[in-house]
Amino acid sequence: MAKDIQGFGLGLAIKFSGSEFARKYKLRRPAEKLAYASTKKGFEVIGQMVANKKDKKSGDPMMLPEPSTAGLFDLTLSEEQQMIKDTVRSYAEDVVRGLAHDANEDMKLPETYLQDIMDLGLNYFSVPESLGGAAQSYSPTTNAIIAEELAWGDFSLAYATLAPVAVANAIVKWGTDAQKEKYLPTYLTETPVKAAIAVQEPSPLFDPAKLTAKAKKTKAGFVISGVKSLVPFGGEASMYLVAARYKRRNRLFLVPGDAPGVQWQAAPAMGLRATATGTLTLDKVLIGQDALLGDDSFNFEAFLDLGQLHWCALAIGACQAALDYLIPYVNEREAFGEPISHRQAVAFMVANIGIELESMRLMTWRAAALAEAGKPFHREAYLAHLLCSEKAMEIGTNAVQLLGGHGYTKEHPAERWYRDLRVLACVNGGMHL
Predict the structure, then answer these.
(1) Reduced to 3 states, what is the DSSP secondary structure of residue 190?
(2) What does 180-244 look like in DSSP terms, one character per residue?
(3) pLDDT tens digits for 331-383?
(4) CATH number, domain at 350?
């Protein structure tokens, strides 16, 4: 009612101030002042009415209470997660980033890299406290944060660091008690573990649901044959977690790296060059009866989803590194007498990188949080990987573009980010969050 009265009075005042009569007798300005005063007073009256109504409702016992925020999705890191994030970022900045260029050029890990990075204690965080480790619970969200911060230093070196951890994560998640007691204590020794998950196969349009690697049961254990690609560590891994078809299901098998019939051949890829990727061939490899990971409750789809989320976290870290590198560059680089960030095309491109990066992080953390809570997360993991695959490649391309001719040279790391980020759309498995 008050709004109707205010609108009616305001309309009359405005109509009068614009009339010929007001102009002739010089009443236009007083009419405009009256319209302004009536508008201001009207809003004050309405505001008071709304406040009174709200106060009345707040004391009404028939009104529902305010909704509780308990149980809602919250991205606020715990004190422990924040400490881990800061520690890993500091290590990535002080150590990993400085090694990235030479490791990429040499196509191998720095000689003492895996030994040195054990100081971070990531191996201990992969092993439950009951077995002597430091992990209080299985936390995909915390693992995603670690992957993101390491990849901020370098995508390829982060992959090399986390590939053995991914094997431990899979054993913790899916392994039997006997398998955990057998394999996880090796992560607590002073010697770094070289282990890798082998899912990808060198076939066009590879579908991880249709594996060509096969496993058969024998009296002594299992016989496994197949070919896997993009396997890291230059054939020096002590153990491979191999995906193969067994009894019409896709399962994982723990294969010793030195088992007879295991062969490795170098096959450098476009990215991930520091990890010395290659092709793993298994020719009728005989493995023990306890080599089949887990029991019949094993979920291959969830295993792949957790792997894709791990790749997403690595991509987010590399994209964040690109954004942090580009912002000062476009602000300091001058063209035509001013910073290139003054150009809308440049400013909008940088802003879009920030927007897409936050969406990638949100969707990945959301899927990881659902997995951690034991809830269905396949849809969220698929959407997160789809988004990260597309936007990571876009951000890598734009990083090269924004650096101009410099982006195409090895003087700046953009060309390395571009090559590494491309792997998201090409690889299936190989990691486990």
Answers:
(1) coil
(2) HHHHGGGGGSSSPP-EEEE---SSTT--TTS---EEEE-SSSEEEEEEEEEE-GGG--SEEEEEE
(3) 999 999 999 999 999 999 999 999 999 999 999 999 999 999 999 999 999 99
(4) 1.20.140.10
Taking residue 128's Cβ as centre, other Cβ atoms within 10 Å add up to 15
Tokens 């994030």 label which residue?
Answer: 85
pLDDT digits (tens, 9 = 90+) for 192-203: 999 999 999 999
**How far apart are the C-alpha atoms of 328 and 277, rounded to whole Å?**
34
Average pLDDT, the chain: 87
Name, in order, each residue with C-beta under 8 angstroms of 275's C-beta and a sequence gap of 6 or more. 109, 156, 159, 160, 163, 232, 233
CATH number of residue 85's parent domain: 1.10.540.10
Q: What does pTM read for this prediction?
A: 0.83
Instruction: Specify the residue for token string 């792949």.
Output: 304
SS3 call for 390 = helix
Number of domains making up the chain? 4
Q: With H, G, I as helix, E, B as strand and everything else as coil, classify residue 389.
A: helix
